[in-house]
Amino acid sequence: MEKIRRASHAGSWYTDNPKKLEEELDGWLRASGLVKSPDVRGVIAPHAGYSYSGRAAAYAFANIDPSSVSRVFLLGPSHHYYTPKCALSRATVYKTPVGDLPIDLEVNEELKATGKFELMDLHVDEAEHSMEMHLPYLAKVFHGYSVKIVPILVGALNAENEAMFGRLLAKYVDDPNNFFSVSSDFCHWGSRFNYTHYDKNHGAIHKSIEALDRMGMDIIETGDPDAFKQYLLEYENTICGRHPISVFLHMLKTCSTKIKIKFLRYEQSSQCKTMRDSSVSYASAGAKVDA
């Protein structure tokens, strides 16, 4: 029986008007000027409302060659629901205003059989926006192609479990029909986020934030999960998708295929100039087979 996850954030975080949404996504994808490549096997992309991060996200999704992919694994952080594990969806289809994405029930069962995952209730699934904000882009890019998704909600994992889930998922990277969409915003800066790290050596606050984010992005590009962990411990940068990114880094470290992450776009929701300001950073990356 079909079990639907509604597009619960349509109409608030992004438009629920299919025609308008198509036009927006089209415009952003075209404006990125990027070419589709079958070598791109994964992305890291933001998940804020489209008025904030829609344009930045296009720099991840415009890379995708839909003709070479039949399955997309989504890794998103959990904002409202606490779990020390990863959770799979109970739904059979994820709806979007621009097309629906069926869940790969076979792979879902395979993952469930490992005994390492929990199942999230539909209300937990629908309350979470981190993966939903990737769905319209995926539905758009894969329009006319047969694709299934495997949504994985990544909980508050310790370092050991990040490595364990990375090892467990690594074999899927070696299948070139699989693609990985990793959801994360970068620095959440300001007193409302309880994070006001400011290195005056960089000048204005927003420059300091950018330097901090870029340091993290550079470390992610090295593919070293331990160095990323060390960076997070040292600077406590409020990267909300740090656990999905860490799992992804462990996957790439363990799999046989050589894949390299490269960041293509960086933006901030606003430029912080005083300690009263706040902002969220958005970064988009492609993970490409490194010949």
TrEMBL record:
InterPro entries assigned: MEMO1_fam
One Pfam family here: Memo
Domain of life: Eukaryota
NCBIfam families xrefs: AmmeMemoSam_B
Protein name, as recorded: Protein MEMO1
Organism: Camellia sinensis (Tea plant)
Similarity-based family: Belongs to the MEMO1 family.
Gene3D superfamilies linked to this entry: LigB-like
